[in-house]
Amino acid sequence: MIERGFIVQKTKEYYIKRYIEQKLSNVGVSHIRLKKIPLGEKIIIQTAKPSLIVGSKGSNIKELTRTLKKEFQLENPQIEIEEVKDIFLDPKIVAERIASSLEKFGSARFKGVGHKMMENVMKSGALGVEIILSGKIPGARAKSWRFYNGYLKKCGDVSIEGVKRAQAAALLKSGIIGIKVAIMPPDVELPDRINIKEALDEKVEEIKAEKTEEKLKKKTIAKRPKKAKEAREEKKEKIKGTVTETIKETMTEIAPATESKEEAAEAAAEPVAEEAKDETS
Prior knowledge:
The protein is α+β, with helices and mostly antiparallel strands. Helix content is about 55%, strand content about 20%. The strands form two sheets. Strands 5-4-7-6 form a four-stranded antiparallel β-sheet. Strands 1-2-3 form a three-stranded mixed β-sheet.
């Protein structure tokens, strides 16, 4: 019984999504999500052109809520619209754009359409992109054309969860053309990616902080030149005072030694003078 309830709920969600996609075709709808809330059901529509879905004074949304209540017996459906930030990183919108351009210009210009769209995807920052067009283009025999650029994972967990994929179909005179788009967005965390710049970045930031501190110190000194000059003069006066004190101390030490030498010379000279007096007498 529980399994049947889940199956009924999921089939109902599938039919609601399909109805909204058919109703809002060629408007750039990316994803449709359904949520259960206490007030009723919440339908989140991600699109590249929210103004076209809202309509003048919300007429399109009001009509859509009425049909959802009537057709699918929803109690209180609340529609919320989210704008896609970068349309060229969304594979669903890219596939729809390729289909509309093929229907508009025909199969003669399919190479130009594929290369142009691939270039726009890579310019928006994608790591890799793959576009496959399969059908009767350009001749009567069915072929598949592959447009590939960048780095795209083909196996492993990253290829299942990281790579975004979408499909679309274009109706031409020659027949239906299938479009497959796979985009690897720039925010994918790859297991083999190693970041070595973290330690270097920290060192660079430390050096920058030191340099900024030195610059601030120099600026403060330049703003106050008088105080710096006064400090220099005080230093010079202190040095002079210490030098004069050392000179005085050395002079006081040398003076008694010189006096003792003079007294000794006088004492030695006295007997010589007395002998000279006796000889003369």
